[in-house]
Amino acid sequence: MLLTLDGEGALYMQVYRSLKQQILAGRLREGERLPASRLLADSLGVSRNVVLQGYDQLKSEGFIVGRVGAGTRVADHLATADVRTGLAAARRRGETVSAVRLTEQANIALAYWQARAQPGTLPTRALDYDFRYGDVEVDPLSARIWRRLSGHLFTHSVHQYGHPQGEPVLREIIAEYAGAGRGCDCDPGQVCIVNGSQQALDILARMFLSPDSQVIVEEPGYPGARTAFQATGATLVPVPVDLAGIKVGQFPDPGSANGLIYVTPSHQFPTGSILSLPRRLALLEWAEQHNRFILEDDYDGEFRYAGRPIPALQGLDPAGRTLYVGTFSKVLFPALRIGYVILPGNLVEPFVGLRWLCDRHTATHQQRVLAAFIREGHYERHLRRMRKRYQGRRRALIDALHQAFGAEIELHGTNAGLHLLVWFREDALAAGESTLIAAARAAGVGVYPVSPLYQRPPGRLGLLFGYGGIPEARIAPGIARLRRVFAALR
Amino acid sequence: MLLTLDGEGALYMQVYRSLKQQILAGRLREGERLPASRLLADSLGVSRNVVLQGYDQLKSEGFIVGRVGAGTRVADHLATADVRTGLAAARRRGETVSAVRLTEQANIALAYWQARAQPGTLPTRALDYDFRYGDVEVDPLSARIWRRLSGHLFTHSVHQYGHPQGEPVLREIIAEYAGAGRGCDCDPGQVCIVNGSQQALDILARMFLSPDSQVIVEEPGYPGARTAFQATGATLVPVPVDLAGIKVGQFPDPGSANGLIYVTPSHQFPTGSILSLPRRLALLEWAEQHNRFILEDDYDGEFRYAGRPIPALQGLDPAGRTLYVGTFSKVLFPALRIGYVILPGNLVEPFVGLRWLCDRHTATHQQRVLAAFIREGHYERHLRRMRKRYQGRRRALIDALHQAFGAEIELHGTNAGLHLLVWFREDALAAGESTLIAAARAAGVGVYPVSPLYQRPPGRLGLLFGYGGIPEARIAPGIARLRRVFAALR
Fold this sequence. Notes:
Two copies of one chain form a homodimer.
Chain A: H1 11-24, H2 37-44, H3 48-60, E1 64-67, E2 71-74, H4 81-93, H5 104-116, E3 129-130, H6 140-152, H7 168-182, E4 191-194, H8 197-208, E5 214-219, H9 223-231, E6 235-242, E7 245-246, E8 259-263, H10 277-289, E9 293-297, H11 313-316, E10 322-327, E11 339-342, H12 345-359, H13 364-375, H14 378-405, E12 409-412, E13 419-424, H15 433-442, E14 445-446, E15 448-449, E16 462-466, H16 475-489
Parallel strand pairs in A: 3-14, 5-6, 5-8, 8-9, 9-10
Antiparallel strand pairs in A: 1-2, 4-11, 6-7, 10-11, 12-13, 13-16, 15-16
């Protein structure tokens, strides 16, 4: 009999679980004799006592009968419906297999997912005022137009396999749009359609990174990108961000390592800094000198409320070292799952190859509808409407925060995007970050700490306030209530 | 000046390209002096002659002027529109970056994509009769129903972020369907929705495989799965397939390596063998003994024309070692991009974590429409209609092949699926496989060799005939014409 211990928890429980699996899976049959405890202990390399304790546990649950020495046997009544149901349930839960070995990247992705699924980062309907970042408004007018186009464009050809690079009509429109709207320099042949920007990050990570790579990332920064890079085994090199974006002057010498530089220049996540023009140029220069590609994640470059727009890095880059990632999910509908990447021409085919391997292509019908939505001008009008709406919320949020907290806070990232970052005076942290957040939550206000987005905690209280998902009228009362929570904790 | 050679082609051309990049990127400016050829040769570790040849090439294209010795300079007229256009074009093509290093997995995926994109594996409208496998028919009635449901279910909630495991309503229906229709044993909590089966293969590969893993695969077998496994660095262990499916008795001792077993039991790809019940049981036993998971790809288990249906391995498996992958793309519309995987319960969360990292989730609206399509009985009716239609084509194809080639051929895989495999008598290969296929193609008949699906060529001529994309009435004339092509080559 081949027993494997799953290595989790007390040894005797491992022996118990392993034997129970054998019984449930029918490999140890009713009435069959169990191995002598001494033999089993030897073969497993554990003490006899451990085996005896395991047997005791099985006995107490009725799986085995008999006395040690006189021979221990599998109980006789195991073929009952109860046991069979128990077995089926155990199999469905996966408990019949011990010692499942997952890859390192699976464990990294799991930790990322579980961190995200913690209370406080998933939507909670019970909150009266939720300032979760990442939420966006679904515009009913745009949804109606989308639906109409969706019906019109439902033709026979949308049901056949498509090209992994994406529908030509959509790539053309994106090249045009990214040129006019974001200052990118590209032709449709450089555009690849993906299922939202996360897929672009994942594919680019797989395309460029291996365990010997280094990735320069912003500190604090976007966990979705960091995790995609870490999953390849690459090493992250966090570089601090200030009001002018990532501190390019602090990039370490990469030595002979290869890798990427990941930046969110138009609205740094989460600080909201806009990468200054001198730093943009220095970044491009550095990349050129050290033969690196820059992954430019323009995740919410569309929403800008003040200041002159700075064109995308991609458009400033004379050397073709920028891999530009854009998305429509944040701007239109989160569930849309369409983004794009603009690559130097000779990198398109490798990208397409990996995309083909990942999941073939993005649903054709959705791509056609999006192309029509942009071509007919609905996208521009949508952007204008939403900018105005978000602008109002942003104003309300800034005013409410100033009124409630005055000189106790410092605001960042107010010029663009759909969230802002609020740093509190140092003594605000005295009560403890999680205490503050839990108290706010108990009072029906969802606020979210910036600290999980740092690799090293910032040492003061910073909260992110998203306004993509909260109506303007609820902002001031929400902040007022938050103020009362804070006051009560002092 | 930092020059890097790209390592491709003649050395002097590498020097030429590298210098041209410096000039186009503005790092060598107009009128600027080039390094002395001897110095440059030393720093690059090439002979002086190589540098001189490179300079000559640049001179002949007008990028540099002057005489060796008297000093070579960048030409003065480079700020012209022509050059700027040339630079932009070079940047767009990615020619401004030399020596791009891609990962091994990117190269593997690229080779897979390029092999697929060869003439003969992509659709060619110019063919009169195309027996490409993998094509399926889009049913106009089902498409109309889908469109109607699509309009009805276009509600506000379909636009917000969804859960990476998939919509609960769809998971419930799939669990029910897979239980009744495919003999799977599962509850909705074990079902994860993916963008077609390829995504499931890719995620499972990333979840279980690393460079020290071994994957047992069918020989011949499905390249989409093989490539996903190889991309992780894992080693493939091909095991031959006969009329009863993969030869489980020939599985090698896995030693201490971990890994997966990949099988297509309901209709082996490409031979069409159905894995016999004794082998199914032996396979499950082997997996249990060696602590492996089995990846069961049920890519076209839906279409079966003769014989009693054998339930999915997943339903026979007492030990919870089967990872079942199903798809709707092949059955409904290829562009739909919805598949699913049924996992032991404790593997669901790791799968969901990786899915979240890959691309978040499958578009919500499509999932809801599919759920309604199945719940309202349209899917069952669609299957019945299509089975009847494909049954007719299969009959026509078998008859035509027998009539045209008689005893010269042997048919395999006729009981299920959407293609069959035809082995020709040994002397058929005398003319050369590619000659035969090219001649058929020239005559307007698309036929496809089985040999690329082997890791070691089979040594005789085998052709795959898909009937998913060709109307019944065109089958007999297509085969008759193929016969004439063959006869002419004898």
